[in-house]
C-alpha cells in the first residue's frame, strides 16, 4: 500500500534540460492551485544555484517549491532520501488541498517517488570501492552497461563516484535496480490518478536553448558561484562528482582547460545529458508529450475534470 495518503490526483512534468519544464510547472501551479515538488538530483544542494538552473524567486511567481536547498553539497544525497522527503512533500501538499506538481529531469528520482520500489540501503563496502576505484570511468561504465543497461542509459558516464556506487549496489545485491512500469505499480497506486506530461522539443531547438542558456548563466556569474563554493570548502574533487557545469568550471578554475575549451566541452556534455534524459523518459508510454504550455493546460484541465 502506498504511503501517500489524502486526495487522489497529482501531476508530473518531465523533460530534458533546457526544455522549459519549470516554466510550464509554474504556469500550471498558478492556474490550478498547485505547488511544485522538484525532482532534480543537484538542486537539492544549497549554493548550487546558477549552475543547476535553480528557479529564482522572480521565476517562481509566488508558487511554493519543495525539495530545493535540502542539504550541503559536501554531503551525498541519495535517491532513498529523496524518496522519503518527496513522499512527505506530496502528503503535505495534498493535505492542504493543493495540487502537487512534480517537476524535474531526474527520471530515477521520479520513478523512486512514484513506484515505491525498495531502494537498496546497501552498506558501503570500502574494499570493493577501492577495487572499483582503480578502474577508469570508461571501464566502470562498460561494466555497468553489461550488468544494468537501464541504469547505464541514465547515468553520467564520467562520474566515477556514481558509477562505483551503482556497481557496488548491483554487486552486493546481485541484481539491478528494478524497472517498474505503471501497470506493475497500479496495485500500489490504484487510489491515485497521475497525469504525466513531457516537454519535447525538436533537437535543433533544444540545442539552441542549451547554448543560449549556457551563455546566460555565464553572464549571471556561474564562474564566480563555483569559485565561491570552493572558497567555502567544496573541494575540486566533489565538484567533479557533482558533474556538468561544476565539473568543467572546476577544471577551468584550476587552469587545466581554457575558457573556450570549457564552454565547448560543457555544451557538448549538456546535450549528451539531455539525450540520456530522453532515453529514460521515452520508455514510459504513459507520458503525454507536449510542445506548448497551452496544450499542457488543456490536458491538465481535462485530467482534473474542470
From TrEMBL:
Record carries keyword Transport: no
Marked site positions, Interaction with substrate tRNA: 106, 129
Keywords: ATP-binding, Magnesium, Nucleotide-binding, Transferase, tRNA processing
EC primary class: transferase
Residues binding ATP, per UniProt: 15-22
Residues that bind substrate: 17-22
A molecular-function term among this protein's GO annotations: tRNA dimethylallyltransferase activity
EC number(s) recorded for this UniProt protein: 2.5.1.75
Region (Interaction with substrate tRNA), start-end ranges: 40-43
Family membership: Belongs to the IPP transferase family.
NCBIfam families in the record: miaA
Protein name (Swiss-Prot/TrEMBL): tRNA dimethylallyltransferase
Organism: Candidatus Liptonbacteria bacterium RIFCSPLOWO2_01_FULL_56_20
